[in-house]
Amino acid sequence: MNILTFDIEEWFHLLENSSTQSEDQWKTYEVRIHENMDRIFRILEDTNTKATFFIIGWIAKTYPEIVKRIAEKYEIGSHSMNHQLVWQHTPEEFHKDVDSSIKLLQDITGKPVKYFRAPGFSIRETESWAFEQLHDLGIEIDCSIFPARHAHGGFPSYDGKAEPTIIDINGKRLKEFPISCHEIAGRHIIYQGGGYFRLFPYPLIKHWTNKENDYLLSYIHPRDLDPGQPMVPGLSNIRKFKSYVGLGGAERKLRNFLQDFRFTDIATAEATVDWNKAKVLKLGK
Question: Could you give the 3-state DSSP secondary structure of residue 139?
Answer without folding.
Answer: coil
